[in-house]
Design a protein that fits this description.
It comes from Hipposideros armiger (Great Himalayan leaf-nosed bat). GO terms for molecular function: oxidoreductase activity. Keywords: Signal. This is Dehydrogenase/reductase SDR family member 9. The chain is α/β, with parallel strands linked by helices. Helix content is about 50%, strand content about 10%. It has a five-stranded parallel sheet, with helices on both faces. β2, α3 and β3 form a beta-alpha-beta unit. α4 packs parallel to α5 and α5 runs parallel beside α6. It starts with a helix and ends with a helix.
């Protein structure tokens, strides 16, 4: 028994050291597009990737969010105003991103934009209470992904779709949990 514990510890040590040696090469040439960067996780991700040296394109919903993010980051970070629920805005933004990244493509696409919407017992709600979270959290995410996917493929990049525990466990009525369950299904089909 002691032999197996020792062997497991040696294997864990080997893997730990190997993991530390894995580095992403040429990060200054890699572009990452992030939605929902006004506040929260998207804002933190944009600032973090910018500090690490990546070329970040941060999509904000508001001009004030864009201005505040630019003030806290380097000149390599670019912002763009994007409403993920507006298909024409998404198409224009995808074309703009394509012009920015050129032949390098997108190394990363982080779909972070999302809203909570109304949370209440189901019998208190109308179908309109479900509409906004589903439009933003699901259809917006899918539309951005489909428009950016050729750029991700060009760079052999990766797609990160932000979901939540609400995609596995419903904790109230409203459109949030159904939208996140659907995001989980979209992730499975995309994979």
């Amino acid at each position: 028994m002691l032999f197996w514990v020792l062997a497991l510890l040696i294997l864990c040590g080997f893997l730990w050291n190997y993991k530390r040696q894995l580095k992403i090469a040429d990060i200054t040439d890699k572009y990452i597009f992030i939605t929902g960067c006004d506040t929260g996780f998207g804002n933190l991700a944009a600032r973090t990737f910018d500090k690490k040296g990546f070329r970040v394109i941060a999509a904000c919903l508001t001009e004030s969010g864009s201005t505040a993010l630019k003030a806290d980051t380097s000149e390599k970070l670019h912002t763009v105003l994007l409403d993920v629920t507006d298909p024409e805005n998404v198409k224009r933004t995808a074309q703009w991103v394509k012009n920015q990244v050129g032949e390098k493509g997108l190394w990363g696409l982080i779909n972070n934009a999302g809203v909570l919407g109304v949370l209440a017992p189901t019998d208190w709600l109308t179908v309109e209470d479900y509409r906004e979270p589903i439009e933003v959290n699901l259809f917006g995410l899918i539309n951005v992904t489909l428009n950016m996917l050729p750029l991700v493929k060009k760079a052999q990049g990766r797609v990160i779709n932000v979901s939540s525990i609400g995609g596995r466990l419903a904790f109230g009525g409203g459109g949030y949990s159904p939208s996140k369950y659907a995001v989980e299904g979209f992730n499975d089909s995309l994979r």
